[in-house]
Structure formats: C-alpha cells, structure tokens
Design a protein that fits this description.
5 helices
C-alpha cells in the first residue's frame, strides 16, 4: 500500500477551517489524526480541536495511527512521542521514509530536547505537556498554514 501526500484541497485555510466556496463539510474541514497511548489525552485533544472546527480521528497507538494514515487522507498528524511498542519519533521516521509530506506536531511530557532536531523529519511543532487549548490551536494553525505555503 502506498500513502498519498494528503494535501488534496489547497483552498482550505487554517485560520478559517471552512472555506466559503465549499458547502460539503467533508470537503471543507481539515482532517487531523491524534495519536496518543493515553485515551484521555486523545479525548481531550479531540474535543478541543472539534470545538475549533476541525474533523478529528484518534488512535491509541502508533501502529493504529500508521494504519489509519494508509487508509484515509489527513491534513495533519499530532502524535505523542512516548508510546509503547512504537514511539512517535519512530512513527515520524516511518512516514518520512515513505515520503509522506503531511505536517506533524510532536507532543511530549518530557523536555523538547528528547526529540533530535533533524531537518529530514520535518516536524512542524513541539508541544510540551501539559499544554493549553490556545497553544494547541495555535500550533495546529501554524502547521497547516506552513504546509499550504
């Protein structure tokens, strides 16, 4: 199975998740995949992002997240780094090895320096847990905007 680049609708804007030229919600809302082994974190992120107008799917493991990314297109991935079996960093490396270009936000309960600053990984932003709703939404908007430029 190959993974597509996931950037199919360039008329979307991250600061207005619903494009005025679109009437079908499925086509006009950014799709975000949230991966975290803590179901409560997934639920909280989902509620915060949906409140801001995004369509959100969650996965509680990197392996489930990778499968989800193969099956459906997404505009952004938000992943925790510290997960059992496959870490967020390993997930990012796998996606980049497959030439997947979607923007990625890495979240961690530890200091940001646990993630090596490798330009090849193209991680759009780091969020240090616990983060606030405004921090999450700003990181999402910035990552989506940068991907459209």
């Amino acid at each position: 199975m190959s993974i597509s680049p996931f950037h199919t609708n360039t008329q979307k804007t991250p600061h207005s998740t619903v494009s005025s030229s679109k009437t079908n919600d499925k086509d006009s809302t950014f799709r975000i995949l949230v991966v975290d082994d803590d179901p409560l974190i997934c639920q909280i992120n989902k509620k915060m992002l949906e409140y801001s107008g995004y369509k959100v799917v969650t996965a509680t493991s990197a392996l489930t997240g990778l499968k989800e990314l193969q099956e459906k297109p997404y505009d952004l991935l938000i992943t925790d780094n510290s997960m059992p079996e496959v870490t967020g960093l390993e997930m990012v490396k796998t996606l980049r090895a497959r030439n997947v270009t979607l923007p990625i936000i890495m979240a961690s309960g530890n200091e940001e320096n646990e993630i090596p600053l490798n330009p090849e990984l193209r991680i759009s932003a780091f969020l240090l847990k616990p983060y606030t709703m405004p921090q999450l939404i700003q990181a999402v908007k910035d990552a989506l905007w940068a991907a459209l430029i």
